[in-house]
Design goal:
Elements: H1 7-17, H2 27-36, E1 37-38, E2 41-42, H3 49-65
Antiparallel strand pairs: 1-2
Length: 72
């Protein structure tokens, strides 16, 4: 698929769809993931330090389950 014109649209659509499978189990994380993902990064966060590690762990696991490597 790489090199095709619609490739970025397909990638974005897949990345946006994947977290929706976890909405019931992890609503707080998926509500942040869905609008905040950009390729291999998460553009967002939380205001409390103690929640940061928890958010990272859950977001990383959700994306890893779909074969994505969340790097930022």
């Amino acid at each position: 698929m790489f090199g095709l014109t619609p490739n970025p649209a397909i990638l974005e659509s897949t990345i946006k769809h994947h977290p929706s499978k976890y909405e019931e189990k992890e609503p707080e994380v998926t509500s942040l993931l869905s609008p905040s993902l950009y390729v291999d990064g998460l553009v967002g966060g939380v205001f409390r330090r103690n929640k940061t590690a928890n958010l990272y762990d859950k977001a990383h696991k959700i994306m890893k389950d779909g074969g994505f490597s969340l790097r930022k």
